[in-house]
Amino acid sequence: MAERRQRARVQGGWAGGAAGKARSAAPKAPAASNLAPADARPAWVRKDQRHTQKHFVFEKPSEVERRVPEAGVIDKPGVYELSKGPTGISRIHLIPGFIDSEQADWMFEQLLQDIPWGQRTHIRQDVSFEEPRLTSWYGELPYTYSRITMQPNPNWHPLLTMLKERIEEFTGYTFNSLLCNLYRNEKDSVDWHSDDEPSLGKNPVIASLSFGATRTFEMRKKPSPEENGDYTYVERLKIPLDHGTLLMMEGATQEDWQHRVPKEYHSRDARINLTFRIIYPEPDGVWK
Ligand SMILES: O=C(O)CCC(=O)C(=O)O
């Protein structure tokens, strides 16, 4: 939060700054001697004694000092309204233990083995680089993000169908697509982004189910137009997503916030994240 601070400066007080420099240039006081002064009366009775002239000058700060806000942590189950704006309410719902840990254990092993994990490669300015994770897509429709299209894949794995139905029963939403992410170790990640592709429609609902190693899901609020794209002072959140946790993102969350899963400095085992989505056919039939 922006903070105004009143600063006090003592003029002619202590060394340092312009006042201090001016004092050091002043004529030197006579060296101390063991001779008694001409007027031997104590200083406090002497009328001619000059008092040290110290006075405080309060200066208005020339500019507003801003503090980078500390990231909040959400690690308790519940529904959280992250923000409210002209675009609507950004809301998340955290459900740790949505899948109990014993079931999550065998599900993780099965998904790791059975999902057809693939490597997407991007080309930017003639340089190609691999996404730092493996992915797989399920759904009747294709899905394009970061300028690469995932082809339709209607062959849902029975475990994925079962998980989709469990989430649908719990949330009341019906999903038709799924993006699977495999983070092989601490070096895998997904960078800041919003799930705001046109094919997801307005205010998309995303159900994100995690298995395996706990990784931190980070969120940051998109800056207001006055910030000119500067994210320095925006609100931030950290949400540890562990084995069997469901995270729902709803309302304006994709419009007003970004999220990422950063790399970790310490070693991490594999993690699988399933993001169930609702995909709409593009009105003009063109997949951007
Ligand atoms: O792995 C996660 O928790 C997030 C995945 C994600 O951001 C995405 O699939 O868009």
TrEMBL record:
<keyword id="KW-0379">Hydroxylation</keyword>
<comment type="function">
    <text>Dioxygenase that mediates demethylation of DNA and RNA containing 1-methyladenosine (m1A). Repairs alkylated DNA containing 1-methyladenosine (m1A) and 3-methylcytosine (m3C) by oxidative demethylation. Has a strong preference for single-stranded DNA. Able to process alkylated m3C within double-stranded regions via its interaction with ASCC3, which promotes DNA unwinding to generate single-stranded substrate needed for ALKBH3. Can repair exocyclic 3,N4-ethenocytosine adducs in single-stranded DNA. Also acts on RNA.</text>
</comment>
<dbReference type="GO" id="GO:2000766">
    <property type="term" value="P:negative regulation of cytoplasmic translation"/>
</dbReference>
<dbReference type="GO" id="GO:1990930">
    <property type="term" value="F:mRNA N1-methyladenosine dioxygenase activity"/>
</dbReference>
<keyword id="KW-0408">Iron</keyword>
<keyword id="KW-0234">DNA repair</keyword>
<dbReference type="GO" id="GO:0005654">
    <property type="term" value="C:nucleoplasm"/>
</dbReference>
<dbReference type="GO" id="GO:0006307">
    <property type="term" value="P:DNA alkylation repair"/>
</dbReference>
<keyword id="KW-0558">Oxidation</keyword>
<dbReference type="GO" id="GO:0005829">
    <property type="term" value="C:cytosol"/>
</dbReference>
<dbReference type="InterPro" id="IPR005123">
    <property type="entry name" value="Oxoglu/Fe-dep_dioxygenase_dom"/>
</dbReference>
<dbReference type="InterPro" id="IPR037151">
    <property type="entry name" value="AlkB-like_sf"/>
</dbReference>
<dbReference type="GO" id="GO:0008283">
    <property type="term" value="P:cell population proliferation"/>
</dbReference>
<keyword id="KW-0560">Oxidoreductase</keyword>
<keyword id="KW-0539">Nucleus</keyword>
<keyword id="KW-0963">Cytoplasm</keyword>
<dbReference type="GO" id="GO:0008198">
    <property type="term" value="F:ferrous iron binding"/>
</dbReference>
<dbReference type="GO" id="GO:0035516">
    <property type="term" value="F:broad specificity oxidative DNA demethylase activity"/>
</dbReference>
<comment type="similarity">
    <text>Belongs to the alkB family.</text>
</comment>
<comment type="subunit">
    <text>Interacts with the ASCC complex composed of ASCC1, ASCC2 and ASCC3. Interacts directly with ASCC3, and is thereby recruited to the ASCC complex. Interacts with OTUD4; the interaction is direct. Interacts with USP7 and USP9X.</text>
</comment>
<protein>
    <recommendedName>
        <fullName>Alpha-ketoglutarate-dependent dioxygenase alkB homolog 3</fullName>
        <ecNumber>1.14.11.33</ecNumber>
        <ecNumber>1.14.11.54</ecNumber>
    </recommendedName>
</protein>
<dbReference type="InterPro" id="IPR032854">
    <property type="entry name" value="ALKBH3"/>
</dbReference>
<keyword id="KW-0832">Ubl conjugation</keyword>
<keyword id="KW-0479">Metal-binding</keyword>
<feature type="compositionally biased region" description="Low complexity">
    <location>
        <begin position="20"/>
        <end position="42"/>
    </location>
</feature>
<dbReference type="Pfam" id="PF13532">
    <property type="entry name" value="2OG-FeII_Oxy_2"/>
</dbReference>
<dbReference type="GO" id="GO:0005739">
    <property type="term" value="C:mitochondrion"/>
</dbReference>
<keyword id="KW-0227">DNA damage</keyword>
<dbReference type="InterPro" id="IPR027450">
    <property type="entry name" value="AlkB-like"/>
</dbReference>
<keyword id="KW-0223">Dioxygenase</keyword>
<feature type="region of interest" description="Disordered">
    <location>
        <begin position="1"/>
        <end position="42"/>
    </location>
</feature>
<feature type="domain" description="Fe2OG dioxygenase">
    <location>
        <begin position="174"/>
        <end position="280"/>
    </location>
</feature>
